[in-house]
Amino acid sequence: MTMVKITEEWDGILREEFSSESYLRLREFLKKEYSEREIFPSMYNIFNAMKSTSFEDVKVVLIGQDPYHERGQAMGLAFSVPKGVELPPSLINIFKEISAETGAPQMRSGDLTPWAKQGVLLLNTVLTVRAHAANSHKGKGWEEFTDGVIRKISERKSGVVFLLWGGNARAKKSLIDKDKHLILECAHPSPLSAYNGFFGCGHFVKANEYLVEHGKTPIQWSNL
User: Is 40 helix (H, G, I), strand (E, B) or coil?
Assistant: First the structure.
């Protein structure tokens, strides 16, 4: 397995992360995993979040956990599935909340690429997973890598909205400079927790209000 580079821009920004001992160990682990097991997403889509949203364009960071672990779902964008794939429960709840906040009809396509193209970095904290085994690549080094991504965005940009849903995402709060950015946190949109504060969170409207206040174009959340 040959790990794919992202873009010249991201490669330069993440040079330290790519040369760290943690990442080099992770790379060896992934070579073995991809050669011996079924791993999602495709090795060519591991860094799809960064390929789809340039560092310069990042306005919102939506932090997920790890990729979907059933065939045909994972595409390297947190919470997103390809067009035509049945919507996972968490994504259904995300769409319900957007519809409740904006009055727009509930969306049917789970492909969140249009968000990514508008500057929403759809970043899982762990970027790979074994088939049918959630969290199977947890603790292998991805967390250090994605912490580096979040830290670099916090340090080098200003006026970014960070959406932290659920315990794993909220644990990243300490990496973000709250004086330069907006942090919105609540329960995870999973059916197990969505009624504990995700529904009614108002995050999509609040994010856009903040972006407009900071001279940025708001996100068209309901244009899928």
Answer: strand
- Nearest residue to 67 (alpha-carbon basis) of 145, 119, 125, 10: 125
pLDDT digits (tens, 9 = 90+) for 137-191: 999 999 999 999 999 999 999 999 999 999 999 999 999 999 999 999 999 999 9
Question: What one-letter code names the amino acid at 30?
Answer: L
Find residue 123's DSSP bridge partners: 63
Residue 140, both tokens: 């292998």
70-84: average pLDDT: 97
Both tokens of 209, joined, read: 């209000």
pLDDT of residue 111: 97
Give the dihedral of Cα atoms 10, 13, 17, 23; nearest 10 deg. 20
**Quick check: is 57 catalytic?**
no
Closest CA to 149 of 138, 140, 160, 139: 160
How much is the average pLDDT of 59-64? Answer: 97
Q: Specify the pLDDT at position 224.
A: 64
Given the residues 11, 57, 66, 111, select the one marked as catalytic: 66
| Of 81, 170, 90, 160, the residue nearest 125 (C-alpha) | 170
Answer with the residue of higher pLDDT: 108 or 203.
203
CA distance to 55, 62, 72, 180, 219, per residue, from 117 (Å): 12, 14, 22, 23, 10
